[in-house]
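Need fresh eyes. Consider my entry:
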Amino acid sequence: MRVQQQGTMNLSLRSFTHFQSSVFRAASAKRFRITPAQKFAAAWHPIQACANHNRSGPRTDKGDHFTVTTPLYYVNAAPHMGSAYPTIAADALARFNRLDGKRVAFITGTDEHGEKIALAAASRGMKPQEHCDDIVASYKQLWESLDISYDSFIRTTDAKHEALVKTVLERVWERGDIYKASYEGWYCVDCEEYKDEAEMDADRNCPTHRRPCQQRSEENYFFALSKYQAQMEKLFEEQPGFVSPDARRNEVLGWVKEGLRDFSISRAAVSWGIPIPRDPAQTVYVWFDALNGYLSGLYPDSEAEAAGKADPEELLQRGWPASVHIIGKDILRFHAVYWPAMLMAAGLPVPERVFGHGFLTKDGLKMGKSLGNVLEPVALVNAYGADAVRYYFMREVSFGQDGDFSEERFRNIVNANLANDIGNLLNRTLNLLKKNCDGKIPIDTSTLPEDHPLRALAAERAPMVASAYNKMRFHDACEAALSVSGRGNQLLEETAPWTAFKKGDDAAKAEAAAVLASVLEAVRIVALMLSPVTPALSRRIYQQLGLGDHAFDALQWQVGTQWGDLKAGHQTAAPEPVFTRLEGDWVTDSAPVGETSAAPAAAKRPKAAVKAKAKVA
């Protein structure tokens, strides 16, 4: 790509960024006679002074705030499993932190501007806003069916978002970090970015989308990313965990060490976007636009006007900086390089962590419409339920690595863990309790000794599960929790309480009753430990234990994982299966791109799954 600042000669972008950016900015300001922005509120100035000293922005002790975000999903087409996967993970993390007493802000949403969106809308005979509204509805519908407990759904077409983008843009502009230049290069519409010669193949196809890039030349505004070379290097030195897993961190470090290059933050030929306040003929580049959604998402819809007048101190009070951005590894550069530098320029703290998860395949193959193997989340949820889908992807895939979906593996894992290890254990035990103890807990479970096999194991596993959630090692959290229910099944087989109830004396029957109580208390704790991943199943378990919705909604991690909640005389509910075994094949056709109006219930459902009955002992 070649860049030319007004009144200068053409030069390559790589060499261009090695010029003194201050010279360009001074020349640009003088040439365009840009009117100074309106003054900021008085509260901004001390923050600005602090940020001038430490360009990573003001620091703050967030206290009990925890802010987690998903990507803002691009609405060129309906959501797919690649969208659902990180959202399930973010939801599990948000749910755990709520249990742990944090004030959680879980932000998700949609990225709705740009040329690609305008083209997608035109292909459907729609206006861009109509197209966006339709796709957004499908996202919200899917999140509801997956039990996604987001606190804020931000749309980049929201008024509060546009107001905040303009505010941030103005701050960066006043810092002198935006200048105007002309350039030419090869542009990928799907990526919405220019590609270097080295990135394209011999036919100048985008390496990601395998479609030809377009040669373009236009005059745009640039963000002086190269100015933040030292600050970005310092960020990675002082915060080694800023990007994870390690493979992603090493990738980003490689980009930074190659030398940061200024990038365009506006488009002259794209009308579907937020106008540049100082030059309405241009619109804000989609990534400079969308990344700010993590800030605007902290404002309620009722405070749209306030978002445009936001100051850093107010955002800090609302949960910024983000505790973690959960993103796909394909958008790592934007979040781990562009975004922190933009925040530094705006005088705001950078996020605490950027986590790049892996990709999903199906039966070992990359998913694609042409292969006919696209995994449609709506049909998957309708066939098997939200808990099964959530559990499989959190249990089977090591978050951060690439993962595969095999329907056979899916059924085997879910049936073994949820239907058998937990569901069948609970149902068997409750039926024995009903038959022999009138459904009442026979002893105070807190009186069982601390070295009781289930009590000791639950006490050991609870902190392990908590640590795994905090590290986003969801598969480890699930495995540790399931080890407790697995031990409960072993204890039933070892003690055979049904035999004691039939043939034993009073002492044997009392011991058998105590076994039932201990198993049910263990299942209660397992339900709590798995509730970030399987919220509906965990709620049903609490209902079966006679604890009800109120007890479930009031759960706290530290208190709830303590042994002894079930008391003598507590009445459990009439035994009912809490999880139905998955049987039969799942067969569905891929929905055409943009076909989003059909409700989830319209998805094809396998008869075997619909008619399946729980198999309990």
Q: What stands out?
A: The first helix runs from residue 13 to 16. The first strand starts at residue 2 and ends at 5.
